Records
---
Amino acid sequence: MKVKRWITVCALAAAMAMNAGAEKKGNIVMDGSTTVGPIAKAFAEYYMGKYPGVNISVSESGSGNGAKSIINGTADIGNMSCAMKDSELEAAKSKGVKVMEHIVAMDGIAIVVHPGNPVAALTVEQLRKIYTGEIGNWSQLGGPNKPVVVISRDTNSGTYETFETLVMHSERMTDKTEYVGSNGAIRQRVMTTDGAIGYVGLAFTHGLKVVDIDGVTPTPESVLDKSYPIGRPLYMYTNGEPAEGTVLAEFLGLYKTSDGKKIIEEQGFIPMP
């Protein structure tokens, strides 16, 4: 009888624990980077599937707006594919916002061209000359006699900020540059334009030709060991450290878990070691 009663009590306790988990309620608002977007949306789908009482919304309006959403208090998490600038940190401080930075994954910025383009490798210097307009035809790089169509992310993008820092060294892009609002838009433009070149996060290279840079192919390994020259962390920012045990803290900690790391890999990004 004692054994039976002990089993019943344990089963009841387990059921109560499961119900407690299922009864978690809350709302989380996220805004920012289109690069971090796939991770944020996959995390949201996973967490809401686990806890139906929690509602998570994800907007993808660019890293600049991710910073603004934390500064202005319009989001619980600001997603960014570059670190907050000093000016953004100062703006946050002036409003009493204590910015907390969480590096959730790593990413490489892949240089992509149309699949029919024979050019397979570039140096960072050649890439910079393409984007300044000094190189304007693929024949200058051993390719076909076709004008280079230069595609860039918009200036509100964290991917743009990283590219400007690591590739452009603050040199001005050519006036012929086409600016688009997302990784997906670059992918679509390059995929349908013979002479186009663009740059996207590793998760957005499907259907495109990825070009080696300085003799290195962008892979999880080359990004982590920094042999690939255009890699960067991906961030989620909060106003202060979420209180332990809250829905926000548990959700934000997903990237540290085995399930979270698997989700990050499935989205085409690199989990933190």
---
Amino acid sequence: MKVLVAVGSKYGSTREVARAIAETLETQGFEVDFSDASDVRTVAPYDAVVLGSAVYGGLWRRDASAMAKEHKTDLLARAVWTFSVGMETVVVEGQPKDEAYGISDRIGAREHERFSGAIDSEKLNIGERALIRALDPPLGDFRDFGAVRSWAEGIAAQLAELAVS
């Protein structure tokens, strides 16, 4: 079974999460291609797609959301999972969810997972630094690669079941 793991990442933190997903799927015996979402021209060769993006202010990166929109019909015909990486991983009842949930629904994703990310203030531009000062979020690397690999193993188990069906 051939799987595409595609990602929208600005500074590389989300790309590292996607790479861990791809590597986990490979260790489970799947043929995996890893790509930036902006480089994906077709999903036709793949049986399954894992699409993820960094989240800023509740929004996915344009390259990831554009990939979902451009390939919607083909994604609907495949097994798809989505993930987001950002600093707010708690969804409070009654609060609007970020746009990833709408994107996931539109492309028929089986599941959407949220992971904590990393903020390295040295990599931020002037506007982003000002926003960080105003919001005062915790700075540092909060990614949990154990949780990322566990989620990818769950995808692998579902893919294995699909292969037998």
